[in-house]
Specification:
The chain is mainly α. It has helices at about 5-15, 20-30, 35-50, 70-85, 90-100, 105-120, and strands spanning about 20, 50-55, 60-65. Strands 1-3-2 form a three-stranded antiparallel sheet. The longest helix has 19 residues, at about 105-120.
Length: about 120
């Protein structure tokens, strides 16, 4: 299942807080803040999709993520690679490095990350 942009924005807040009440979610939004009913509707949809769970405390619900951020974004990136780059991570990496505005220092950092991953996989 995929999240809409609004759901992703809300999910980001839940990932940041780990456990959060609706009132705290609303406080985390920048102005103009969405209506509480809008957030409640998004939370219900995200529960139905299996992204969010909750515990009840009196009349309040404390929401928490059921999906790790890294797992969600890994799936999203892999979907992009599959759909736009013929399932080739190499084509994706080539496109990303050529078309992004990475500085030479950032490219060096990326190279170091790749070199470390190569060493890790060779063991």
């Amino acid at each position: 299942m995929k999240l809409t942009k609004s759901e992703e924005q809300l999910m980001e807040l839940i990932w940041q807080h780990e456990k959060v009440f609706l009132k705290d979610i609303l406080l985390s939004y920048p102005d103009p803040k969405p209506a509480g009913t809008t957030i409640a509707t998004l939370l219900k949809r995200m529960q139905d999709k299996g992204f969010v769970g909750y515990e009840t405390f009196g009349n309040s619900r404390q929401y928490y993520p059921l999906v790790k951020k890294s797992a969600y974004f890994s799936k999203e990136v892999n979907g992009i690679i599959k759909n736009y780059f013929n399932n080739s991570a190499l084509q994706f990496a080539s496109f990303f490095t050529a078309s992004s505005n990475l500085t030479p220092a950032e490219l060096e950092d990326l190279k170091k990350i790749i070199d470390l991953e190569i060493k890790r996989r060779e063991k």
